[in-house]
Specification:
The chain is built from 12 helices and 15 strands. The strands form 3 sheets. Strands 3-2-4-9-6-7 form a 6-stranded antiparallel beta sheet, with no helix packed on it.
Length: 548
């Protein structure tokens, strides 16, 4: 179940990454496009008013008159009709209504073209008619080139261009800071991960290379921009990644890298297939990358994206490794705290036994004096009664020998003593050899936690209903352990159905179940926990005994 959940979470993470990339990509392309119009009819007009079809191969002369017509299709966007007017005296009509007129000529030594900008209605098809006279042929564009330009198209194009370079650069800059943070964290934990240095340099190089490629000439010197965009810099960044990989030769790292590569390739394949059928941006972009490599021998684009992928994946793997290390350290710390608590409990129990023994010895001294006095007096009845009391007290103090296995016997004797202190009926059925192949530390964690939880839960039950039944035996290569206890109230469970502690110090006590589960997993088993209708709580497992 946990492995399935892990894979589901991994798939969900990749899906979120793809979704975020698709969302951000929409802000890097211009969805509104300039629509160029073709003249459907074009005529030259003679002095007598006769019209002749325009011959595009003949250059116009000063004084020539013309009439041009076309249909402007309906558009869902607000926009303007734009065309150049230099050297022309024109009248523009839409659906027979005159909307614009000019007598514009290009001034002497003018650099640019003058333009006519005519607002057009939204979602309305109209007929465009242009009549006029050629006034100057020096900078003439004839026939005029009409086009529909959406409102704010230039501003939107600027934003898209900035986002195209800014978003990837921002992402790699964030990765750089994350890597730097991971390195500083490793330093504070006195386990400096020097392999993060080349990864950090590669990430910083990617950030500088991409942002300067798009708009670096506006902010940096041309020499620096040209240097950062040399193909050799891309190769150097790849070399830094190779150094990082060489410094991380652990098997787990390569396993995670392989999983990431397979998952990324699958995601890219699916996205490319969808883009291929839709003829969308990704399909065209990958086609351009392949064309640059095969036709122009330009590997810069391919190197950039391979390096970006490597840096991002390696950064995530490094972050995951650091988190696992921190969690492992916390687990170890909690384990030590739990062991210390259990040791202190055992010490207090032993201290209580020593105190009781001292009191009993003191009391026994007085009873021996009393026995001697009764003997001298000859009071046989009183003497017999006193001897019976002493015998009963001795039976109560005698410790039960549960097994010849020293560790198991010591744990059970301690549990039996604590059960007696709380008026809990304690039963133990033991069938284990003197020596077990289970590590003593694992046996200690499993049995002490199991019995500690059982005794504390049973102590909360009503008097007369308190019990703990414990059973441990070796059978068919397994160490079977079962513990039953009474309890009061209702046992709490988390969202996954796991039982959680009801004690005040949940951080320590709730950790006991996790420790027992970890021991069970180490010996190829599980910790089975359930309750019954008669207020009985049961914990059981079967550890596979390692071979000697």
């Amino acid at each position: 179940m946990k492995k399935t959940l892990r894979w589901i979470c991994l798939a969900l993470f990749f899906a979120l990454c793809i979704g975020m990339l698709c969302f951000l990509q929409k802000f890097t392309k211009l969805n509104t496009s300039i629509q160029y119009l073709e003249w459907q009819t074009a005529y030259t007009v003679g002095t007598d008013g006769t019209e002749t079809e325009l011959d595009y191969t003949v250059s116009p002369e000063k004084g020539d008159r013309f009439r041009l017509e076309t249909v402007v299709p309906a558009s869902s966007e607000y926009g303007n009709l734009v065309f150049e007017t230099a050297g022309l005296n024109m009248t523009v009509s839409i659906d027979g209504k005159e909307v614009w007129q000019s007598e514009t000529a290009v001034p002497e030594n003018a650099v640019g073209q003058t333009q006519a900008i005519i607002p057009l209605p939204q979602n309305t098809e109209c007929r465009l008619t242009v009549t006029g006279t050629v006034t100057d042929t020096a900078s003439l564009i004839f026939p005029p080139l009409p086009r529909f330009v959406p409102v704010d198209a230039q501003e939107i194009e600027s934003y898209a261009y900035a986002n195209y370079y800014g978003i990837p650069a921002g992402a790699t800059a964030f990765i750089s800071l994350m890597i730097a943070g991971l390195f500083l964290l490793s330093v504070t934990r006195k386990k400096a991960d020097w392999s993060l240095i080349p990864l950090f340099l590669a990430s910083v190089g990617l950030t500088m290379q991409w942002i300067t490629k798009g708009m670096g000439h506006h902010f940096l010197s041309d020499g620096l921009v040209d240097f950062l965009n040399r193909q050799e810099i891309g190769i150097l960044l790849l070399v830094l990644l190779v150094v990082y990989l060489v410094m991380n030769r652990q098997r787990k790292f390569w396993k995670y890298l392989g999983i990431s590569a397979i998952a990324s390739a699958a995601a890219l394949g699916v996205a490319y297939t969808v883009s291929f059928f839709r003829k969308s941006y990704l399909f065209k972009y990958i086609g351009r990358l392949i064309s640059d490599v095969t036709e122009l021998a330009d590997y810069s684009g391919l190197l950039y994206w391979v390096t970006v992928w490597m840096v991002a994946v390696c950064a995530v793997i490094s972050a995951y490794a650091v988190m696992r290390s921190i969690i492992a350290q916390q687990m170890e710390s909690k384990t030590l705290r739990l062991r210390n608590e259990l040791i202190m409990n055992s010490y207090r129990a032993m201290e209580s036994k020593v105190t009781d023994s001292a009191a009993i010895r003191h009391e026994m001294k007085h009873k021996i004096i009393a026995l001697d006095a009764l003997y001298q007096k000859g009071d046989i009845d009183a003497l017999g009664q006193l001897i019976g009391d002493i015998k009963q007290q001795n039976d109560h103090l005698a410790q039960t020998q549960f097994t010849e296995n020293f560790t198991v016997n010591t744990i059970l004797q301690d549990a039996a003593y604590r059960a007696a202190q709380s008026d809990i009926r304690f039963e133990a059925l033991v069938s284990v050899p003197p020596q077990l192949t289970v590590a003593e530390s694992d046996l200690y964690e499993l049995l002490m936690n199991m019995l500690d939880n059982a005794l504390e839960a049973a102590a909360e039950a009503d008097a007369g209903k308190r019990f703990v039944r414990f059973q441990i035996e070796t059978k068919n290569g397994f160490l079977a352990v079962k513990c039953e206890n009474s309890y009061a109230g209702k046992r709490r469970q988390d969202a996954y159905g796991n039982y959680v502690t009801t004690k005040n110090d949940a951080e320590i006590h709730g950790f006991g179940l996790k420790l027992m589960s970890a021991v069970a997993v180490r010996y190829h088993s599980i910790l089975d926990i359930f309750t019954s209708e008669n207020q009985t709580f049961t914990v059981q497992t079967a550890l596979k005994l390692p071979k000697k």
